[in-house]
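The records we work with from here on pair a chain with its fold. Taken together, the tokens spell out the fold as the letters spell out the chain. To see the layout at work, look at the sequence and tokens printed below.
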Amino acid sequence: MALLPRTILEKMGFSSIGENVQISDRASFYGVERIALGSNVRIDDFCVLSAGSGGICIGQHVHIAVYSSLIGAGKITLSDFSNISSRVSIYSSSDDHTGKTMTNPTVPAAYTGVSHADVYLGKHVLVFSGSVILPGAVLEEGVVVGALSLVKNHCKAFGIYAGNPAKRIKERQRDLLKLEQKFLIEKSN
């Protein structure tokens, strides 16, 4: 994976860029002026980030793996230490598929029924391969989403969710919070 140098990242026009940002030269960005990147962010090959009016906000120590996409007009937030595995899709906009309106981006907005809702992923959220996060989803701190799951609602803190639609199947341990504190202390020294 070839990484874009800092000079190129700065010229791209992100709303903000932290330190140690690693972005593949094969990733694609749209609405870059509405995308904020924290420090220690890594975005791998073939990812697509398309920020609508709400923007995309990526915290510290966040990884977005290959072939993942973040798309829509609602705000998408990935909080510190969150991780998006390969082929994950996060949508903050959705077409109306009932037939009351037309669909697709080549049709003027007056003829479509696109809805928008913010998507929020809290600290230490893990979303595993092939999962889809729909507009309005809230994944509280420490949530894990199993592979190939569909999340369309609110996921409570430190739950492990899986399925279509995703349901809470068990609890996640919280030991990582102590490790986070130790890591941050060591990092600041």
About this structure: The chain is about 10% helix and 30% strand.
